[in-house]
Amino acid sequence: MAKKSFKLVKASAALAVTAAALTPVMAAEAATSTVELKPEVVLGGKFKEALALNTPKGVEIKWGKYLVTAINKWQTIKGQGSDGKTYIKKLYARNYPLYILEQDLGEVKAGSELEKPSIRVMYRDGKIYTQAPERYTMSSNYNTKDEGKQEVLISYNHNGNRITSMLSYTVVDKAGAGAISSVKALGKTSVEVMLNQEVDSVSASNFSIVGANVTSATLGADKKTVKLEVSGLEYGQDYMLAANNIMVKGEAKDFGSKAFKSLAVNEVWNLKVTPKASSLLANGADNTEVTLELVDAATGRVDAGADNIVLDLNATFGALSSKRVTIQDGKATVILTSEFSNTGVTSKIDAQIIEASGDYKALIGKVAGTANVSFVTSSSGSVDTITLVNAESNQADRFTLFFDKAVSLDHFVAKDANGKYLYTKGSTTTASPVAADGEEYSHAFRVNGTDKSVEITQGGKTFTVKGFKPVAGNPKAMEVILDKGVVLTDNARVEVEVNTVNSISKVTKSSASFVVTDARKPEATSATAEGLNTLKVKFSEAISDATFVLDGRFVEGSDFSAKFGDFNPVTLADNRDLATISLTGTYNEGKSNSVLGYFGAGQHSVQISSMKDFAYLTDTANLGSTQNLYFSIVADSAKPSATVTVESPEQFRVKFDKSVSGFEAADIQVQRKESNGSFVTRPVSELPHKLTRISASEYVIELTSDWTVIYDTAKSNKNYYNDEYRIFIAKEAVTNVANGLKNDDLALSLNYSGSPLNTPDVTSPVISQIDRVAMTNRFAVTMSEPVKIAAPDEEATLAQGQAGLGGTTAQFIGKDKDGKTVTINGTVTGYANNANGMDNVLAVEWSNASGALTPQAVVDGGGSTEWTLVVRAVSDDVGNTAASATKSFTVAKSPAANTPFAIAQNGVSGALNGSAEDTVVIKFTEGVLTSGVSDATNPAQYTLNGKTLPSGTSIRVANNDSVVGFETVTITLPDGTLNDASNVVTVNKDLVSYDGSLFQGPVENTFSVVAP
Description:
The chain is mostly beta strands.
């Protein structure tokens, strides 16, 4: 070991002393020092990694607690270093995704491409965020070839955290083996077949049933369900159905066979017994109609084709007007008359089929029906009277009435002679409004004189009742819906009076009062797309007004229109809680694949603000809060296609399978097949034609020159049947209004099998039918084919060499009251069916000029109601001209002014007539019906001295005054039927006059007889 110098040893010692002196000071300083490190941003929730950044080399730090849920904010974390120091670091954690919520794309067509949907992602802050398709990636390695459940991988990355998930979907429509999934008999003549895959089309020839015949086949919207109309099925038998040669993607495929069992007879038919009144006064005179109907159990509809089916009837109490009745057109009617009782009893009516023929023979003894009618005493005070017990309202456009017993529309709404409800629109009353236009109508009151069915009083307002709506689940309640024009004042009292007709045809009054209290603010509950250009927004209650914004930028007026629904009295559909948003043609989402006027596929939003219910009109507190609802649009790639029907050699009807727009005459190319087999478009100058729009999917093409002119037949000796033609519609000529997509090339043959263009037309037109327009001077005369007429403003294409049509004329021929023939000239004014462009219905009328003799005047003056219409000089499209076409028809007498229908004062008399037959004469205040349910010549309408009219009775009617209608009924009875002193005849209280007036009574009539 080397020796150190004295100086070096001395220096080292000095350093050691110095170090020893400093060590306690430095240690104390180190123990109390705090070091703040560089702040860090945390991505993906990786706190540990962020804490490890920028720490002193060689120092281990044990960090304290921190919050992983502290998102989008700074937090300070302290740690103790291995060097004895306290370290501080500030961290800012960005929000990051945790997982993707499960999602199923639903059904995907085999071979198609998957469309990325929006996804929903759960983030660290506990909220769910919707991410657009462009925000994540989806594997291109997915399977849409194999049928069944499939999955595809998706990946989403944000703020340093990448997460993955699987989207599920189901591949359908794989073209595999065809099979019948199920077969089910729906009725005697209807069978439903479910196939295991979508098919192109079906026909009756594709199906066969051993032991039965398939007459038609209809393919359902799902392309898998087929409804067959069949004949020859026996009840409750086993059958085998086969399906073969069905087109699937252009190829014929067999679907095999499957067994099924037809329905038993009592599964197919019901015998419905319906008393018009549920209770009668037990006085031996009160009565009610009982309707018996053969009903198809599957549809609930009366079988209008059921005839000559005899029913045996029994009632435990009271008297039925007939022991046996015969069903005609599916219905029969009897009268049940009560019997006297000092206690209440219940009459049970039993009906069963005892005679039938043809297909209905199997119903004998197997189909029966029953019903009950209560007979109540006068002391009970129950004469089938409806009494209002309460009324309430929590919406200003309606209120609900509560009664002491079940009610129906029959108690409030008027009916016509055929039992159909009546509706009003302005000054017009009708029983046959178009259901689609029902929101324009109101229910007609049953009680509508000085008193009304419902009368409302509040603050001097005048209210109009829009209609009545039964309350689901409460048969004793009826909702009254007011016209939107005047509604109830919120938080104010309302008085309501109800007038109903009781079982003895008397009007009874009852009343109630209530305070309108609508404390709820309206809310939007759903938004549902219909097609690609319509959105339905549903609200929690009837809505008066609201403001809408689509996708945060599209507004009402320029981009869409909004229509608020109403109550439809015809269908009872209440759509006042519904708003329909319809896109305008200028709506444009601005994407490369956007179609003007249509939603693009994917998720959309609608913002609803300023929601006002009807109470808001008088109470501005009823204003709903702004809401955002979301809805999805599924892509629709269907392009329009078409078929053509040749109605005559010069008229063709084109029907598209979708509602279309943009189709114009210039889009039509009439093409002729040339000798080389190709079709060549003929110029309009050669084949002139015009186009008429019938509906959104239907158009009529008419030639404006006759074929003989086009071919110059006089020289060429040729005509249309020497060539083949087709209608060609070029690609992108028409637009599917449902999605904005345009058609591919369409070639429609005009020479299909059975086309009138295939053979010469040598048959002249004839009259098929004559229909009068509701007691006017106008008639619709239906011809057997489209025709050409000489009439004002009507075009006619004359055949070559045809100088003209001459004057198409009409004459009405009948007999006056003396039996003399009367001929009255009429006028053919044009076509009566211009709306459908068929040109086969002529508009014919007689003159109503002052002083002119008319068929109506002849009939009303006592002349014959049987008339003949003659139309002369009418030609079909190719020039076949009928010199005269004739058809017989009936001119009914004009209805009399509407007077109360009752038995006239002292209107019942009887006569014994010696040894001749007895007679009873009943004089009514207006004419009676002689057919149908209220046929006054039917003995079932009467009882005599508490019994049904005896065998041998005959009834006739007569018009013995100057007023139109048969007001006098004479009942001829076997000699000895009437009592010498007093007799009682009762009349069906539900009788209706010839103009639809309800019988006002009296039901029970006492009369004396005139001795011989």
